[in-house]
Amino acid sequence: MKYTILLFEDEAELRQEIQDSIVLDKVEVLAFDSWASFKDVKLDSVPRLAILDINLVDKDGLTIFYELKEHYSEIEGIIITGQASLKNAIASLKLGIRDFIEKPFRARELRSSIEKCESYKQFRVKNYVIDRQLEESRKKFEAHWGIEFIGVSQAIKEINTLMKRVAQADATSVMITGESGSGKELIARGIHSMSDRSGAPFYPVNCTAIPDSLFESEFFGYQKGAFTGALSNHEGWFERANGGTLFLDEIGDMNLALQSKLLRVLDERKVNRIGSHDIVTVNTRIVCATNKDLKQMIEDGQFRLDLYHRLNSFHIHIPPLRQRVEDIPVLVNHFVRLFSETHNKGIVSLHSKAMNLLLNHHYLGNIRELKNIIERAILMCDSNVIKPRHLNFTEHTNGSGGGDVDYSLETIEKQTILKAMKACSHNKTHTAEKLNITRQALNRKLKKHGIE
C-alpha cells in the first residue's frame, strides 16, 4: 500500500534535503512550496502524513493542516519551524499535530518522527478495530442477554457465563462477593436484565444506610396512622420490587436482630405492613452483595448461618482488578470513550507511558478507582492524548486497603478545580482555560462546591 507524505516547505534547498532524507519503502513524497501550488492537485492516493513549515508564503502551516484535516480526517502532521514558541506548540497539539521539530534538525530526527506517526496511526487503527469488535459483541450480548460485565480475562468470561445461567433460574437467590468498587451492583443489574423479571423493578438497597429503627417500616411498609408521622400508606421494599429483583448491598453490615426478620420473609415470601393485619404475598428475587468474609462472621457469631445458606444459593465472586490486569486496557478504552463523550472532549488515545502506569497501579478501589482516575485525566487533559502527567493516583490510594478513600466524583471534581485555581493564582479566566471549560461553567461549579 502506497504511503503518501505531503511536504510544505518554501525553501527549495531544505525542501529537497527533506525529500532526500525520507528514504522509506513504499513512501511517496509530494513536495510543495505553498498552499496555492497544492490546492488544485489531484492526488492518486489519500495522504497519511503532512510535514509543514509553520511559515509559508501564502498560509501558515497550522492553517494548511487545518484545511487538510477537512478533506483527509485521518491525516497526521509534523510541524517544522525555526521560530519555536509555546503558543505555536500548543496550537499544534490542539489541531492534532503529532510532532514539533525545531530547525536545524538531522535527517534521522525526521525519520524517527515519521515512524512515530505511523506507529501511532497503526495503534489507532488497531484500537478502533478492537473497540468496534467489543462494541458489536456488547450490542449482540445486550440484545440477547442484557448487561455484560466488561473484560477479557478468564475470570470475567466465567462470571458472564454464571450470570447468564443463574438469570434463567429467576427464583434462585444470588450472593455476589468482592472488594469495594469491583462492580457487584453491575452484576446484579445484569442478572436482572437477563432474566424474565427484566420488565419489573430492580430495587437496590444499601444495608449500611438503614437505621435499625427504620428497618421494618422500610422493608415491610406501614399503614396510615400506624405511628406518629405515618401520614399515608407506605409500600416497603419487598412490595416495590414485587415481580422483580431486590438487591441488598453490603448485607454483611446488617445486625443479627434484623437478619432474623429478613430470614422470616425469605422463607415465607409474605409481609405485612406495620399497623395492618393483611398479609401480602411477594414474588421478589433476592440478590445480595458483600465485601466481607461472611464465613468468618458466622464463626464470630456476627452473621446467621441459616440466613447465609438462604442467600447463598448461587455464589458469584469478583476477583480484584489487580488480579486480572488483562482487563485494564479494555476498561480504560471504555472509560476514555465514555467520558470523552460525556465531557465533549476530542480525546481518542492514551500515551503508552500512561497506559503502563495504569497497568502497574494496585487499584485498592478496583474499577471504581480506575473509572475516577480516567475521568479526572480527561478533565485535566489539554490535548487529544492522555499523558502520565494527567494521571493522579495519590487521591485514590492509601495504606489501609482503600476503605477510607473518598472515590466520589464530586470530591475529585472539587479537588481538581482547587488545584487548577491554585496553579492559575486564582484567576478565573485562566482556571477555566486550564480546565477546558467556559468561565460561566466554572462559576456554576464554584457555586455548586461552595468555593469562594
What does this structure look like?
By secondary structure, the chain is an alpha/beta fold. It has three domains: 3-124, Response regulator (Rossmann fold, 3-Layer(aba) Sandwich); 148-319, Rossmann fold; 322-449, Orthogonal Bundle (Helicase, Ruva Protein, domain 3), CATH 1.10.8.60. It is built from 17 helices and 16 strands. The strands form five sheets. It has a five-stranded parallel beta sheet, sandwiched between helices. Helix 5 packs across helix 6 (184-194). The longest helix is centred in the N-terminal third of the chain and has 38 residues, at 107-144. It is elongated, with a radius of gyration of 29 Å. The protein starts with a strand and ends with a helix. The model is unreliable at 395-405 (pLDDT under 50). Residues 149-379 form the Sigma-54 factor interaction domain. Keywords: ATP-binding, Nucleotide-binding, Phosphoprotein, Transcription, Transcription regulation. It comes from Carboxylicivirga sediminis. This is Sigma-54-dependent Fis family transcriptional regulator. Residues 4-118 form the Response regulatory domain.
